[in-house]
Predict the 3D structure of the following.
Amino acid sequence: MVTLGVDLGGTNIKVALVDEKGNILQQASCPTNLPRPAEAVCDDIAALCHQLADGRSDVAGVGIGCPGTVDDATGMVLYSNNLDWSNFAMGPYLQERVGLPVRLANDANAAALGEALAGCARGTDSAVILTLGTGVGGGVVLGGKLLTGYTGAAAEPGHMVINDAPNAPLCTCGRRGCLEAYASATALIRMTKQAMAAHPESGLWQLATLDTVTGRTAFDGRDAGDPVAAGVVEEYTHWLAVGIANLINIFFPQVVGLSGGVANQGEALLKPLRAMVEPMVFGSAFASKHTTLTTCTLGYRAGVIGAALLARN
Amino acid sequence: MVTLGVDLGGTNIKVALVDEKGNILQQASCPTNLPRPAEAVCDDIAALCHQLADGRSDVAGVGIGCPGTVDDATGMVLYSNNLDWSNFAMGPYLQERVGLPVRLANDANAAALGEALAGCARGTDSAVILTLGTGVGGGVVLGGKLLTGYTGAAAEPGHMVINDAPNAPLCTCGRRGCLEAYASATALIRMTKQAMAAHPESGLWQLATLDTVTGRTAFDGRDAGDPVAAGVVEEYTHWLAVGIANLINIFFPQVVGLSGGVANQGEALLKPLRAMVEPMVFGSAFASKHTTLTTCTLGYRAGVIGAALLARN
């Protein structure tokens, strides 16, 4: 038995035929071509599904990772800012056109499910996946199932406030001091620029201008021996550690997996991060088992794989 | 079919025979008489179980709510500060003496399960229960099951840092700015005392001295029209709202239930709290379903009832 996974993005629609272990057997894609009506986008998804399923009798279902807030129980996309859709019955619409059961998840949740079942947390009982990109996305998988919550909108760990202070950085959600405002790549870039502005002598200026700073700049500066860059990395790592420790104290998961641009630093990020997180974990001195803090392994394929595995759930 | 629930406290051992709906049919108790060996305490628990099960053939199992960190899978009490036990195989020990399957949960988790299945969240699909007492305890129930995590120690939402600042109040866990340091009754008493010390003119001085302040004092002062007391209640409510909004943004549960001394304020606490929490919830404007914020209903019976219902899981 195989399933189809759909990663519906603002730029491209990717569809893959995936086996029960999360291996991609075949894939196809097309541009999303926004803005256009939800039905037109779904007709393209259906065409890609038919293309990959053509001649096979072992395709059991379709899973879709969709940006925004979705309700899997009803198949509704409640609201998607990226797609500019609201209250669209995507599940029923696609189910009719593809002729297979359709499951729906938020795109970050689909990717988290992929990592939990077939990536960095494969074979474990619980995982919290954090994506450190433009924002901080996330997903929680418990006993092989996505945590979606009563409203279908779980989990949004990026919008956990870790510093409720009037001078805390503003988050995209309108509040101050969210994890996203401290641990996204965007936040790291902001911290790097602030440090550069405050330290004209910093070696960071040899690596970038204020216009060309990326999420790598501070790490590169630290590796080159610049103390200002090292300070930025330490500050960023601290905030990320506070957020991760909070999530461990809530879920005590077997794995916390990090993905997204900043996670590409690998052990250069993980090693100091683990050292900071450990003493923040409640009761860690008495625990017989500890959470493993690691990086994700599926990369951009996590979305289609997770969506396909959702269709098996 | 009925089950036995045990609420093992530092002062008393309470045991109840409970039906499938969470009704207490019969109960018995004895003093815990600490300090004494774990085996002696368990022998008393076993005696109470035998007393309540005597002559019945429909008792299916025993559930125990135990202070500290427990591992239900192995029946081990890993560490209990209150009981001064560590690495005690309580499950197997009791199972042998009572002759019934034994399940183990942390006491706050057992109480949360009781509220979720038979109290304020009965009939719902998910609940986060917070106990606002000496500390901030908690439990999360998803699809009728306790979230215990890989390490068995979940959930400790009281040790979620909401204000990571050098001047944030110190928590009992050794860190600063935890929810417990802002939203426990202890924290409310601290805030009340600080306000009294800073405002000799406050009407709070007519209600209490610094030695007799309780978790009710600030609420009573507010009701009597004292602006300083109103400020304390507002500050306390704000911090509690930040913690609750974080938990909603992570779990999006159907119910958040509050128990413990401060929750006895009922709507006087809940009404302003809901107004503060709502705008903090991510995407609340687009959600079709919202978390219900309420108070717990089982009181001190939540522990035995939840422990008994755990034995049915």
In short: The two ends of chain B are 13 Å apart (CA to CA). Residues 227-251 of chain B form the longest helix (25 residues). Chain B has nine helices and 13 strands.
